[in-house]
Amino acid sequence: MAEAVPSEIEYLDPDSLEPHPLNDDVYGDRTDPDEALLSSIEDIGVVEPIVADPQPEAGEVSDQPTIISGHRRTEAAKKVGLEQVPVRFVRLETDLERQERLLVHNQSRDKSFSQKLREAEELERIERERARQRQGTRTDIVENSSQGDEETSSPDDDDFGKTRDKVADTVGFGSGRTYDMAKTVWDAAQDGDTVAQHEVDKLDREEQSVYGAYQKVRDRVQTETEADDEDGTSSSDEEEQDSSSDDEERERVAAEDAILSAHKGTNDEVFPEVLDLHVEPGSAIADVTYGEGVFWRQVPSGKYELTATDIDPSRSPDSTDGVDCRELPYDDASFDCIVLDPPYAEGFYETPDKPSENDYWIKDRYVGTTGEQSATYHDAVLEMYAAAGEEARRVLRDDGLLIAKMQDEVSRNEQRLTHVEVTNIYEEMGFHAKDLFVVVRPDTPTVGRMYEQRRARKNHSYFLIYEKRE
Question: Which one of 77, 145, 358, 404 is at 20 to 30 Å from 456 when CA atoms are compared?
């Protein structure tokens, strides 16, 4: 980057300064300065001068000076009504130099994970352009090198590691290895991987580490890459020649790298992974026990064609009357996937009769409403799953999936393995148990009035995935 001599400070109307588009592309917070900055500028004005280039690029729509540093200060000055701000001009020859200088000026600011990665992408792009420029001016590169006997490489190949480490240090990742892990998560999120997108959100909120996010995403990326190889979508002639070694490499997956079925976390953290593994984007899904929509909190809106209903009209976005999961108002074979999470604790089914209006709403809605319930306690739980399963099978297309949430329990001093009992019922219906996810609570469950413990307290539940078969 060429050195530019800054000018003396001038005082200009903040409206006369043009924001650089790269600032919005990378940082995206120009128009929303925080209250502390607004308060400071309102009290004492803009202390640190705005840095701007007075020479607009040929062909630009505006001939106003372009801001290099101070976008948020300029916007804050406008919001509090300042008529002038201090500006120091620096003359740069090209927009590439402006972009590089803009990123350098933002090096010390607080940045979110997403801002760091967008910044890193721009730094890498600028470095590639610099490398092309350097290569274009070299006179020691032999033309027609393909006629020689020796293999040649790009003159900048050896600089890749140095560039990576430089970018990592500039944006605040420290080491190139950490930057590589961050890029893996970021690239997967940009490619539409839901889990990676959730991890990026948590990284932006500083609720996750780069290593922790990488651990969540790396297996998924590896699996997708292997699937592409198997489909031939990313193979070349050279890769085909080395396919035997690639197969051997894929077979040497370490135990700690395997995708696991048990997750310590909450339903809204695990459910998106269930969908990502088993349900294609764009699939028609009916969540027939939607409730407060907890499962869907971290699923990107629009990724699936969701029909969300519940027996309680106030919790049923797609039905003003409410929908009972045991009596679905849908045509046969109309959905790719059904999500089912009925009350699975026997305490909800103490009586086959409808309770008083003052009782818990789930009892009020589910118990005694269909005229078919004859059982109580745990038997009523199984009856609920059976009736809902029959309806799910009716409205599912061939090979459609039923995702059912459930939990084992102790009933009348006997251990009841609900997930086994329901699976047996569904197998008889024509469902095949395809997969199982165990969700372990991140908190400590309550124990109530327990004076002597005889069985392990249940702190886990299940997502069972069943496939409809003929």
Answer: 404
**Strand partners for 423:** none
Q: For the domain that residue 17 is a member of, what is the CATH number?
A: 3.90.1530.10
> Using DSSP, how many helices (H) and how many strands (E) does the chain show?
15, 13
Distance CA 396, CA 332 (A): 7
Residue 308: which residues within 8 A CB-CB, separation 6 or more?
Answer: 287, 290, 293, 296, 316, 317, 318
CA 141, CA 206: separation in Å to the nearest integer? 47
Q: Write down how long the chain is.
A: 470
β pairing state of 50-53 and 66-69:
antiparallel
Q: Cβ contacts of residue 361 below 8 Å, gap of 6+?
A: 312
Whether residue 288 is found in the same domain as residue 426: yes
Tokens of 466: 């069943």
Token pair for 199: 């991890």
Check whether 10 has a pLDDT greater than 80: yes
Residue 247 lies in a domain: no
pLDDT digits (tens, 9 = 90+) for 167-218: 888 888 877 888 888 999 999 888 888 888 888 998 988 888 888 788 878 7
CA 106, chain centre distance (Å): 26
Torsion of CA 362, 364, 367, 371, to 10 degrees: -140
403 has pLDDT over 90: yes
Residues 408, 275 share a domain? yes
Tell me: do 169 and 213 sit in the same domain: yes
Closest CA to 384 of 404, 412, 403: 404
Instruction: Tell whether 342 and 410 lie within a shared domain.
Output: yes
For residues 77 and 173, state if they share a domain. Answer: no
Residues 411 and 427 in one domain: yes
The answer to whether 20 and 66 have CB atoms below 8 angstroms apart is yes
Closest CA to 276 of 184, 180, 388, 403: 403
**Run of H or E residues at 273:** helix 267-278
Q: Distance (Å, rounded) from C-alpha 460 to C-alpha 457?
A: 9
Helix (H/G/I), strand (E/B), else coil: 52: strand
State which residues form the domain around 80.
6-105
227 and 298 in a single domain? The answer is no
**In angstroms, rounded to a whole number, what is the distance separating the alpha carbons of residues 366 and 312?**
9
Tokens at residue 14, please?
């903040």
Q: 293-332 pLDDT, tens per residue?
A: 999 988 888 889 999 999 888 888 898 888 999 999 999 9
Residues 387 and 351 in one domain: yes
